[in-house]
Specification:
The chain has 274 residues and is of the alpha+beta class. The protein has three domains: 3-79, Orthogonal Bundle (3-methyladenine DNA Glycosylase II, Chain A, domain 3), CATH 1.10.15.40; 86-146, no CATH class; 156-273, TATA-Binding Protein (2-Layer Sandwich). Helices cover 36% and strands 16% of the residues. Bound molecules: iron/sulfur cluster. Iron/sulfur cluster binds next to helix 2.
Amino acid sequence: MQPLEFIKFTPRTNCGECGYAACLAFAAAVTKGGENPEKCPYVDVSQLGDEFSGANRGKDGLEGVGKLLDEKDLALVAYLKKKTSTIDFAAAAEKIGCQWSGPEKDSLLFHFLGRDVELSHDTVLIEGQEVEDPRDQILLYNYVHFGGGDKPEQEWIGMESLPNSISKVRTLRVYCEERIASNFTEKADLLIKCAPKLGAILQENPEQSCTAAFFVPVLPRLPLFVLFWDEDKEDGFPAKVKVLFDQNVMDFLDIESLVFVCERMAERWVELAQ
Ligand code: SF4
């Protein structure tokens, strides 16, 4: 069975309960990598054939999973490059908060999590290095392709208030909020110390009763507001993080890319603390 056939047995909500960020990734892991289909609580395994029983699972090995996902990502990069090939960067730059390099390079210049990006119609450079991970390329080309909209107003809302986000709330929690919270429990000073390296600005008087709050301009017109509550041993509360979005955020990215940007922010914050 192919992943696209298997995915029909899932509800396709990308809820993350199986441990994978998306149903397609889980479908690839089951059909190509021998993953247990029962890890998705919504799959009725009695509907699946013998192919997925015990030893018959995963004939192609885990390598097949990576290959399939890479191919899908690379195809999406190619598609987005084609889509952006018709965009006039000089005219588009202002609306998405970028600088235009001029006609010679015809690139967009901006910051992504505190690092310099140069995006042309063919390549993306971060700090002068060509970006290898297709997921970063997808994110950055997607940002350009969206073309911007109303400027951020810093009216902050949670992921749960964004349209079609029910399945993404958990993904955001697992891959971003809990990752930051667990890595910086009793380390608020370290969280604050690393913040400027990813362009995050500590807020002096956050309205919420949190330990620290940050304004994080992950992309030029895409700020996040990150709240951190450290562990409260007395009352038995673990450390907690809440990420908030500008109410106009959907003018700048789709929900999938938005969750990915948060995942990248968490990864980078943790990396910087190593
Ligand atoms: S657990 Fe959620 S993300 Fe995983 S396959 Fe099932 S519906 Fe999709």
